[in-house]
Amino acid sequence: MILPPASPDSSERQRLMGVLARAPRAAIETVLATFGPLPPHREMRKPETGLVTLRGRIGGGGDAFNMGEATVTRASVRLETGEVGHAYALGRDATKARLAALIDAAFQNPSLHDSVIAAVFEPLLQAEAEGERRKTEETAATKVDFFTMVRGED
């Protein structure tokens, strides 16, 4: 049985998927341990690794050019309740891609939506914010203030 698209706001889902994409696999596994048992599911698409072409623009307005390629792993999962989750992970980490797809599917399930936000999304956001704060502090500690001394001669 195929269900209609889930109701969660797409911008909220995009934000969740962005957090999952940036999070290391260990962090995802840690928050899933607090989530409880994973919902029954099956793989629609086993994790597959391939290449994507990276394109860029000089100055944001120039002609597009190919910068190179990056390795990406993708996976798709279907919960027994019918929700389908998809995920892409930079690199070759098949486990991360599968877990992210499972979280995406659970996020779309109305009965799991709030628990996914509380147990997965919010802790990963807090960890990301803490990492940014720590990086900012480390950068600030290396800041050098340059000043010009003016000699008293005219």
Output the keywords.
single chain, 154 residues, alpha+beta, 3-stranded antiparallel beta sheet, 3 strands, extended
Question: What does this entry look like structurally?
Answer:
By secondary structure, this protein is an alpha+beta fold. It has one domain. Helix content is 44%, strand content 26%. It contains 4 helices and 3 strands, in the order H-H-E-E-E-H-H. The chain has a 3-stranded antiparallel β-sheet. Strand 1 (41-57) and strand 2 (64-79) form a beta hairpin. Helix 1 (10-22) runs antiparallel to helix 3 and helix 2 (25-35) runs antiparallel to helix 4 (113-141). The longest helix is centred in the C-terminal third of the chain and has 29 residues, at 113-141. The protein is extended and about 85 Å long. The N and C termini lie far apart (87 Å).
